[in-house]
User: What shape does this take?
Amino acid sequence: MSSGIANVNGTQIWYELSGSGDVVVQIGGAVSAHEGYETVTPEIAKHYTVLNYDHRGYGLSGRPKQQYTIQTWCDDLEALLAELNIEKAHIHGGSMGSFIAIAFAIKYPKRVGKLLLGAGAVAKCDQMGISHFRVWQYLAKSYGVGSFEVADELVNKAFSREYIDTQGREKLISLMQDTAQRNADTNVFIDACQVMIDADVGSDLAGIEAPTLVMVGSEDVLTPLDAGPAGFGARMVAEAIKRAELCIFEGSGHGHYAECAEDSINAILGFLKN
Assistant: This one.
């Protein structure tokens, strides 16, 4: 395993490489950055080279004061691959990372081997999803992204009722709060929520040629299997992409990497090896 800092588009991007073989790039979410893949990275790295990195504005990467957009994050990833002399890679994005992965596959198709979309890939949020993200923005503006209030609401939307009761609500809130304090700034988090509110790429999905795996928990209330009429949920994403398959984790909420890590690993490796 090795890590480093790459100078990318005027800022510094932290990255970590582990394993060997074809490259799997993992794009982090709106709170956890690269830490969101801790449950799956070790097993994937037994078969592939895993490139984890922190977005601009997150974790160990530079945090310039600016407006953060999905195009900025897409362009940073393309520049990072160029800096590391990686011509093509499998692109794996979970949660907000799936929004970025879809946008990356649309803008830089020649860079993408296979496309993996986790934690409820949606092309457009429905009204309930938009409401969830606006509540997050309001709480972050009022209390800060590292606050108990934000962590409490994140846990509510990230996990299933069964997982919260089994793991313990206070424990999960504490872990979420610690993760947010390490990895996210309030203003960047607010911009990240806006990125997901504004996403509307359903009409572009037919142009994605890469074989695609769409993973979603059956109990995901944030980025659901089936969105309301105003949205474009995970099932519709899988139907719209030519060479896509849908994997549903029964009983899991949004955070299937935590709730059913073994099933997530098996789905990822099974798809990559086929």
